Amino acid sequence: MSDPDLIGDEELDIAVTLNGKPLRRRVKARQHLADFLRQELELTGTHLGCEHGICGACTVLIDGHTARGCLTLAAQVSGRTIDTIEGMSESGKLAELQSEFIARNAAQCGFCSSGMLLTAYELISSGAKLSRTEIREVISGNMCRCTGYHAIVDAVEAVMAKGQR
Amino acid sequence: MKARNFRYIRPRSLAEACRILADADGEAVALAGGQSLLAGLNMRLSSPRLLVDIADLPELRGQSYADGTVRLGALTRHAELLSSELVNKHLPLLSKAAPHIGHVAIRNRGTLGGSLAYADPAAELPACAVALNATLVLAGASGERKVKAEDFFKGLFETDLRPGELIAAVEFPAVPAGTVTGFAELSRRHGDFALAGVAAVATMQSGRISETRLVYIGCADRPKVAKAVSQAVATLRPPFGDIGAIEQAVKRDLSPEDTPGLRGDTRVHLATVLTRRVLNEMSERVAA
Lengths: 165, 288
Description:
The structure holds two protein chains of two kinds. Chain A has two domains: 4-85, Roll (Ubiquitin-like (UB roll)), CATH 3.10.20; 92-164, [2Fe-2S]-binding domain (DNA polymerase, domain 1), CATH 1.10.150.120. Chain A contains six helices and five strands; from the N terminus they run E-E-H-E-E-E-H-H-H-H-H. Chain A has helices spanning 33-40, 85-90, 95-103, 113-125, 132-138, 150-164; strands spanning 11-18, 21-28, 59-62, 65-68, 81-83. A five-stranded mixed sheet of chain A has the order 2-1-5-3-4. The longest helix of chain B is centred in the C-terminal third of the chain and has 24 residues, at 264-287. The chains are: A alpha+beta, B alpha+beta. The interface between A and B is large, with 37 and 35 residues.
């Protein structure tokens, strides 16, 4: 009885608003949100790197705020609003950030890009005006192994400057 | 990695949550923000059989101020410590410490009660709670009891919480005028676990620090008031240039063991440097 693997796969019904549309599903209790999105819904834009909250590749928006998809259970988000890179891209909300990222080659392999864009989006939509050092602090929870971050900071700074005009 | 299997339940009231936790015979864990718990489960550092999701319980929410006491619900998120006017005004130490907790996405989810209940000795909020002389309000199946923060932390990841108990709220005495607070932390990268850190509350009198409560982070198995350092700095006049006297006192308060990547004496040195930094910063603020 003390072996937790013997307790069976408990399943729960959840209801969420995903990328603007209501969704009802049955999920495994232990399935985290990023696995749920990727494996059950085939929304593979949410990436998985470390699975313990360090790399930021699995970033999604829960009720409009960035969160780690690997440190949130699918069961936990029942009743909440989830936005992923797919929905945010299709809605055009990321268009400005995406075009600045492309213009500066701020996405190379693309593994961090979905998380990076959502973190940048939360920052931009807060209306805050930050220095480059402060922008680096905000994106410090998203690891990029290609760009050295410089181009990403440039892109975020450019969008921030546009908002101030 | 993936977590081992568990069941999940979302109770509708605090009483129900306490009852479920009490009935689970130590095999259940409360889940709030989950930012430490779920990372630990994914790494299979622990394997509870039942997660009790308390994130929706209204009894654990809210922030209020009355009679010189700020009461923060256990579900207060780290991000709220930065945005709350009540916290900025009465508990600036928490606003200074919060940016050091993880990253934005972690602060959006992680909670005050969760951080205290987890009792990681490298965490910021347990040290702040002790430095601010906070009182924890614990709810259990048989009612509420209150415990001082300095009595709550028992050791490495160990607290005074009994089976079936939850942190419901934390009561902080508002920091009075004339008392200053400071926070400093060293980590290898921003958001990483602290190599060393210090939370400080000090009262200044005629150019000297008359009374301090200094609590170190990452230097012992639990947060506690550094008595020798507090005594030593009361005899010194700022600015604190010579770190010898402070270092001697730090050595009386702290005896960190060598860990992979950081020797104990290096940690003492870092704690000393941070102490001087935070004390000078606080006394300059008073002088200005």
